[in-house]
């Protein structure tokens, strides 16, 4: 009996221990901080239009959409918005409507428009009249996606079975993708690698597909559901769209090769509410529209595993309500760019009409109070600007506050004006509040951007904007005291906390510097000057004026200035330069004939050249 009681007591103690642990785990989970919702500003691009909707946006914040023109008796005319101006794309000759559906990085727009006969044909607009892309022999076609090469995808009636077929238009030719013979297929989006998504017939259902290298992969359906439809695709081949559940209501999905098809849910979580995704950027942020549970539909942003109502991310006094992503409903279109900007449509509280909108992320920022003698590393949390392709993270990884400080870290939306060729591999960031304390600033960089622009990530450094001349310089050059010293590899607090030390950690894609000043900072690297030796010339006298020039990023600084030299590459006689070290100078050419002269510019580390041809036609 005693043994039995002991066993029961042990079981009870174990049960209580498990219960306590479980409660503790739940308490920890409950205390885990939730990410702060992103915030957006609104740009109303409707202007003087009666009403408008936006379908898509590129990385230059050019927007394509459709507007109503009561004067023409048309409810649908395609437009492109660029640098504050709305430009009508017009219609086909004899037609009265057009609809934009996709835009690429150079501002080319695709969509569909009515012909004189009333049929609808796919078009591409490149700045002039719309180009009719024709059909597959049927009466209609549509363009929905266009990549940076100008390749268009969409659908067209085949003229044989009168089925819609997914098409690709390239090199002046429209071709069927050859999907699901005997049933319909639709192509909605294309990336730079010509990977395409849309939907195709599979066993009497529609399934989303990923088309690559001449074949289509069936992406399946959500759970035990029935149909799925691909709407957007990013550079990695991740696909978004929507699919039918077993209950027949539709949910947005995100597909990746590693995770398969993920149900993104709805804004309300209601059992019969629906959601539709229409676009995805290279940070895998997804936009679309969802039921809210109150009988309305709202645009959403899915980021960091959370679906947000776009209406909750904008200022309450924005003057716009009922914001939806793209052109609404379950439509397609690249409605979010790589900087997190969203092409949206909302209802104006001023005139009650639909207005095309650009939603722009408010750059991330933080303000932290740091007590005297506290470590900057432990007191100031790293800040990540998650709504950009760089996803730059800023951290203070060493240093001690000499007094109570209020440290502010804020990202800037763009580089301030400086040298005309200056480029960066991170988002620009402002740091203030550390006074003259010595601390270590660490900023992450975009590896692909660093290699593309600077040739190697080994060449990137932490730069600061010198307010005295508005030029970007090595961050440690702004220190009071210390000696600039380059260090290879990651920051080591045991050896590197010395004013003026700086380095790049190519394994973790960060740069760091030990500094004691505040300013704007960015990750950049030196680029060779861009040289122009001037226009070719034909002269009848032996002497001519050479007008050369070069633009540069101002790096390295020092010296921060270019040196020039002229040389003769070829020609029948001698060449005498007025000043061989001046970009603009004179040249005297000794004999009749053709001469090639070269101007070289050097920034002290890198140089480049350009040539000019001088034809001397003077008499003998």
Q: Can you tell me about this structure?
A:
It contains 3 helices and 49 strands. It has a 6-stranded antiparallel beta sheet with strand order 29-32-33-40-35-36. The protein has a 6-stranded mixed beta sheet with strand order 30-31-34-39-38-37. It has a 4-stranded antiparallel beta sheet with strand order 1-28-27-26, with no helix packed on it. The protein has 620 residues and is mainly β. The chain is globular and about 75 Å long. Strand 23 (286-291) and strand 24 (297-303) form a beta hairpin. The N and C termini lie far apart (130 Å). Among the domains are: 365-525, Chondroitinase Ac, Chain A, domain 3 (Sandwich); 530-616, Immunoglobulins (Immunoglobulin-like), CATH 2.60.40.10. Helices cover 7% and strands 46% of the residues.
Short description, anyone?
This protein has 620 residues and is mainly beta.
Summary keywords:
49 strands, 3 helices, Immunoglobulin-like, single chain, Chondroitinase Ac, Chain A, domain 3, 620 residues, six-stranded antiparallel β-sheet, six-stranded mixed β-sheet, mainly beta
How are the secondary structure elements laid out?
Elements: H1 2-31, E1 40-44, E2 51-57, E3 63-69, E4 74-82, E5 85-90, E6 98-103, E7 109-114, E8 120-125, E9 131-132, E10 141-146, E11 152-157, E12 164-170, E13 173-176, E14 185-190, E15 196-202, E16 205-212, E17 215-218, E18 228-233, E19 239-244, E20 250-256, E21 260-265, E22 275-280, E23 286-291, E24 297-303, E25 306-309, E26 320-325, E27 342-348, E28 354-361, E29 365-370, H2 376-379, E30 383-384, E31 393-399, E32 405-411, E33 429-432, E34 439-444, H3 447-454, E35 460-466, E36 471-474, E37 485-488, E38 501-505, E39 510-515, E40 519-525, E41 530-532, E42 537-539, E43 543-547, E44 549-551, E45 563-570, E46 575-577, E47 584-589, E48 593-602, E49 607-616
Parallel strand pairs: 37-38, 42-49
Antiparallel strand pairs: 1-28, 2-3, 3-4, 4-5, 6-7, 7-8, 8-9, 10-11, 11-12, 12-13, 14-15, 15-16, 16-17, 18-19, 19-20, 20-21, 22-23, 23-24, 24-25, 26-27, 27-28, 29-32, 30-31, 31-34, 32-33, 33-40, 34-39, 35-36, 35-40, 38-39, 41-44, 43-47, 45-48, 46-47, 48-49
